[in-house]
Design goal:
Elements (H helix, E strand, L loop, with lengths): L2 H9 L3 E3 H8 L3 H9 L6 E3 L4 E5 L3 E2 L2 E2 L3 H10 L4 H8 L10 H6 L3 H11 L2
Antiparallel strand pairs: 1-3, 2-3, 4-5
Length: 121
């Protein structure tokens, strides 16, 4: 396990495999793979078997959390790699309060996007 993997493991409270995500979204696993490929979800290889997994907080009520896709696009445009995006999304921000991932789940996406845009300045 790399230092980055350990840090992300520490920050992200729960993970789901792609089949678990597919079940929660009510779609085929191939659709989840497409979402990852399109950058609408972030999946990282974890564990002994290096299975692709997605943070559980990205899914709520059978859908991808509102505002996540736009936030990921902003971060990617700012030059963030997947691991950096995960670190940013799951690191507490006193001005939110909570983490950007929590704020997205609580439908406070505007605030999160504002902070993501500010990173580009």
């Amino acid at each position: 396990m790399t230092e980055i993997d350990a840090k992300i493991d520490e920050l992200v409270p729960a993970w789901l495999t792609l089949p678990d995500i597919a079940e929660r979204l009510g779609v085929e696993v191939t659709r989840v793979r497409q979402l990852v490929k399109e950058g609408q979800l972030i999946a990282v290889r974890r564990g002994e078997n290096r299975v692709l997994q997605v943070p559980a907080e990205f899914i709520k009520d059978g859908k991808v959390v509102k505002g996540l896709v736009g936030t990921l696009t902003l971060l990617r445009d700012d030059g963030f790699a997947d691991d950096e995006m995960l670190e940013w999304l799951f690191t507490a921000d006193d001005t939110l309060p909570g983490t950007p991932a929590q704020a997205l789940r609580e439908n406070r996406g505007t605030e999160v996007k504002r902070r993501a845009q500010a990173l580009a300045v």
